[in-house]
Each structure stands twice: as C-alpha cells, then as structure tokens.
Amino acid sequence: MAKVLEGVAKCVGKGGLAEEAVLLVSSVTFEKLNSDLSALREYDSSYDGKKAENGTEGIRYRAQSGIVEIIAHPFVKEGEAFLLPKGSMRRVGAQEITFGFGDGEYFEKLEGSAGYQLLGQYDWCILVDKPARCCKFTGITN
Q: Domain residue spans in the chain?
C-alpha cells in the first residue's frame, strides 16, 4: 500500500492528479496485496467459528487524490503495474469492431490445419488526455 500511495503522490505533485484512479496489476501481485490486506483484518462480532472466510474480490485504497481501485488484469506483466486516472481516458477511432469480410463470410478456413478462424477488425485506441497523471510501477517483487 505504501508504494501505491507513493506513486499516487508523484502523480499529484507532477501531473495534478485529483480524481479517482485505477491501478492495473498482474494477478500474482493482486493476490499478494489481497493476502497482505487479509492479514490486517481484525475479527469482530461478525466472526463465525464454523466457517472461515477471508480475502476480498476488490481492493480500494483511499489516497490524497481520491479512491484508487486495484484491478488484476491478465495483460499486465508480473513485476509491473499501471496507475491510470478514470476521467482522463477515452477511446478514439474511426470504426467500431466488426466481423466478417466484404462478402459476408464470418469464418475463414485455416490453410494447413483442420480449423476455422473468426476475424475481427477495428480502428480505435485508448487515449489519455493528461499523461502526466499516469504512473508505471516497475520492479514489483511478489
């Protein structure tokens, strides 16, 4: 948590981050954060001796810029994380995702193997209006 808040502080100081943000982490890093958070849990009157349940599906930290929601993403490499402001991101482009070819075919037979493939086409990207509000974390050890 201290490293996440340190990264948020850098984004606040240099980029003016003053909104909710998302931290994309690898699944291994998320489980490490989940186990650290579970170790800090205190048992209260809701404790049930018959069934033990611990952990969480979502992690949210309160930082000086607002809420930071931590999400495990399958495309984030182990050892890296990305802090992105929610309000400064948008999708821009010329074409939504479409399937098929000009003649209406959706599936194409694969040459050299017994299979078909479905082709999709799109022309858009994610644009961050204020990149100074983003942060890349590296060197995360799990």
A: 2-89+129-137
76: region left, alpha or beta (phi > 0 left; psi from -120 to 50 alpha): beta
Residue 46: both structure tokens together? 């809701």
pLDDT at 45 over 80: no
* Helices (runs of H) and strands (runs of E) counted in the chain: 2, 9
Dihedral sign for Cα atoms in the order 73, 77, 78, 79: negative
Q: Domain 2-89+129-137, what fold? A: hypothetical protein PF0899 fold (3.30.2320)
- C-alpha 42/C-alpha 15 separation (Å) is 37
pTM equals 0.73
Per-residue pLDDT tens over the stretch 74-105 = 999 999 999 999 888 888 988 888 776 666 66
Distance (Å, rounded) from C-alpha 88 to C-alpha 19?
A: 9
Q: What's the rounded Cα separation, in Å, for the pair 96 and 121? A: 8
